[in-house]
Amino acid sequence: MRSTPGLPPGRTAVHAAAGGRLGAAHPRQEGPTDLRLVPPALAAWATAAVLLDATPGWVTGVAVACTVVALVLLAARRRGVRAQPCGPDRRLPVAAVLLCVAGAAVSAGLHGADVRRGPVPGLARQYASVTAEVEVTSDPRLTRPRIRGDRAVPASVLMDAEVRRVEETDGTAVVTRAPVLVIVDVGTRTGTSAEGPGGTGPVTAAEAPSPWLELLPSTRLRVRARSAPAAVGGDRIAGVLRVRGQAVPEVVEGPSGAQRLAGRLRAGLREATDGLPADARALLPGLVVGDTSRITPELDEAFKDTDLAHLLAVSGSNLTIILALLIGPPGMARLVERRGLASRLGIPLRTTAVLGGALTLGFVVVCRPDPSVLRAAACGSVVLLALATGRRRSLVPALATAVLLLVLYDPWLARSYGFLLSVLATGALLTLAPRWSGALRRRRVPPRLAEGLAAAAAAQALCAPVVAVLSARVSLVAVPCNLLAEVAVAPATVLGFAALAAAPVLMPLAKVCAWCASWPAGWIADIARTGAALPGGGVSWPGSWTGAGLLALVTLVVLTAGRRLLRHPWLCAACGVLLVLVVVQPPPLTRVIKGWPPPGWRFAMCDVGQGDATVLAAGDGSGVVVDAGPDPALVDHCLRTLGITRIPLVVLTHFHADHVAGLPGVLRGRPVGAIETTGLEEPAEEAEFVRKQASARHIPLTRAAAGEQRRTGALSWRVLWPPPRPAPDPDGPNDASVTLLVRSAGLRLLLLGDLEPPSQQELLRSPQGALLTGVDVLKVAHHGSAYQDPELIRRVAPRLALISCGKDNPYGHPAPSTVAALRAGGAVVLRTDRDGALAVAGAGRELRVATD
């Protein structure tokens, strides 16, 4: 072949062609994909997933049978015996598959036995109290706040561990090795960010970090706990250890040197990000090393809704970016034109490969060698191999090799959804994305845009069915959000790793790097929040494998139709506009199509599950919110669909969690004039939560008292309960509920909160009771429970009774007796668990109600 002028001897024109564009494939690399390693990898994967629960007899039988058959096939091939003289010899590939199956069976049998051997499984089945020595194997993590009934579940610290020693009742110790999940009840109320995006306040509302959260993997502890079996059969744990009353961990042996080093580096990165805006401070450690300890529930939910959750966990892309910075783009690693820091510094290729391996090892150490990090390192090693060889066609075999080795090393990965998503995404990038990118470029799409769009679409097409199984939802904004976020991932990761490396030696430099990284990190967070806030950003989908199959079929149909649509640009544009309208759902268009909210609505009851959240219309885009429900996301969605952008007053009838826990969603992005509450501050932790939310946003906090009257526009209301000094003292928070009599353009509404019969009777006897005669709309007390005063229902005689309750709630709300009593009084009864969100419009004979 003729040499190209300007290149050293031996460098040909084809080399120069490969370097014409960053990341261009070498012409010699084109050809059929090598799939020979794919069947063994898939066979090992399936075998491991099936045999983890199998008995030793089954495991031994499968392993021996496959090994014997494979040896027979290999021996027959070696002797030259051909069953099909005229066809290809397929015995070697079949033997390879059988040997991989045998290896996976043995590995699965050994790992599966770990969760069944020793004393721990038996103690767990007996729910016995144990004293054990455990070794921490993961980073401790704090549970998200959950609402159970009217109470917030106390926070717990979760961590994976291995039981190394169990003390028997007679004082003897049994040495064992059993994986367990440790749950520590720390008893603090965790909450959401005290400030919105861009704030600088604390990320959580916990009073103080628990010392359990500061533990490092490989630390050995002595715990006294109640054991319990795993909640789901076939899990990789032998049992659950629940620790109560042990405020401080009893450390038997400190962490290893590698984990101490990793802990110092991670702590240095957190310190470097301390002064950043809230979203960047929370997101940057997650992007760099998978440290999600500062991610708030709202931000986490936003990333899940937009299918950006992979950015919050360590992934192969992190390592890929760093390796590309060191070695350069794929396809050029073996060329004289190769790029990257190693080339600029004159480092030879083999030395560069060694540095890449050392970098990969350091990545594993810093990001913790748990299965997810090992998976990321393996996927990153695929790219490292491509960078070292410059051969695109070697990527699929390398991915198959990584899958095979990882499944043999840890067969529990065969049941990991994260592992499945990682492999699917990587496979999509290696197989579908290059073809789709080429098709888009042939239709005059700019190369960079074509590559990014093809990568995002290919990963979404293969991963969406699995994501639907996990979330019962399909995101319609995943592709554009991933495309927009991708431009910021590389600079945020590189600058974040620079801050990580600089923090131990020069903190000012680390803070500068972190500040620079905060801009792209903030951009990613804004993309996630914006995409999640779009009304049509996602659609519900069956969360089962049947639903996944259906989604895969729909995706295939859409892709097939899309190929034909690409031939008609105007039709493509029309479909794009239609999709945008479906996702954005402009309020005027939504009202026309859905009829929600109805024109002139006066009162709305949000569907927030088992809780209360209602809105009184107070003018264009303005509304008085009464209670906030248990979930910030649900009440925020309701207010957005109602078009509420300003809130002159939030009334929290009492401090039960199913009425106040959603307050951050009410305050999200909306100016609020004041928050009014009852005088009985119980439960104390929820009252403190409300005070912190108000203080962080400088919102005045006032107390309601009977006789108080207010007005805003055509809306006016009077507080009927509680009295200025509750008399008699309420039996609990329910009996101290703020009760409102509202007038709105001729419409009379009575909002009872969770008032129970004792206070309902006192209200009837109070001076305010004279006002309780004939109302148009009654917000039934306490989600329609059976505890209602019949005289109050008779006196009020509502035309319309609305009940807020959750579907299939465990309390039996609403009670059939209450519904019957309301209907017997002539009321039309509607409930959110069956009818969805409710909106009341009109007055008098024109009174009407619409459902969402």
End-to-end Cα distance, whole Å, is 72 Å
Q: Tell me the overall shape.
A: globular
Q: Quaternary status of these chains? A: single chain
Give a count of the beta strands, DSSP E runs of length 2 or more: 26
Provide the helix percentage.
40-55%
Uncertain parts: 1-30, 189-207
- How much is the average pLDDT? 83
Cα-based radius of gyration, to the nearest Å: 31 Å
How many H/I helices?
Answer: 28
Order of neighbouring strands in the sheet with most strands: 17-16-15-14-13-12-25-26
Report the sheet-strand fraction. 5-15%
In this structure, how is the largest beta sheet organized? 8 strands, mixed
Q: Could you say which structural class the secondary elements and strand pairing correspond to?
A: alpha+beta
What is the fold's blueprint, element by element?
Elements lengths: L12 H6 L19 H14 L4 H24 L11 H24 L5 H6 L3 E8 L4 E2 L4 E2 L2 E2 L3 E12 L5 E13 L34 E9 L10 E5 L6 E4 L3 H16 L5 H12 L7 H9 L10 H12 L13 H4 L4 H18 L4 H19 L5 H15 L7 H26 L4 H25 L1 E3 L2 H25 L4 H27 L4 E3 L4 H21 L3 H16 L2 H8 L6 E5 L8 E4 L5 E4 L5 H11 L7 E3 L4 H4 L2 H5 L7 E3 L6 H13 L4 E3 L5 E4 L2 E7 L17 E6 L2 E5 L5 H9 L11 E3 L10 H7 L3 E4 L12 H9 L3 E4 H4 L2 E4 L6 E4 L1
Parallel strand pairs: 6-8, 14-15, 15-16, 16-17, 21-22, 22-23, 23-24
Antiparallel strand pairs: 1-5, 1-7, 2-5, 3-4, 5-6, 7-8, 7-9, 10-11, 12-13, 12-25, 13-14, 18-19, 19-20, 20-21, 25-26
Description:
Helix 2 runs parallel beside helix 4, helix 8 (297-305) crosses helix 17 (507-533) and helix 12 (371-389) packs parallel to helix 14. It is globular, with a radius of gyration of 31 Å. The model is unreliable at 1-30 and 189-207 (pLDDT under 50). The protein is of the alpha+beta class. The chain has 28 helices and 26 strands. The longest helix has 27 residues, at 507-533.
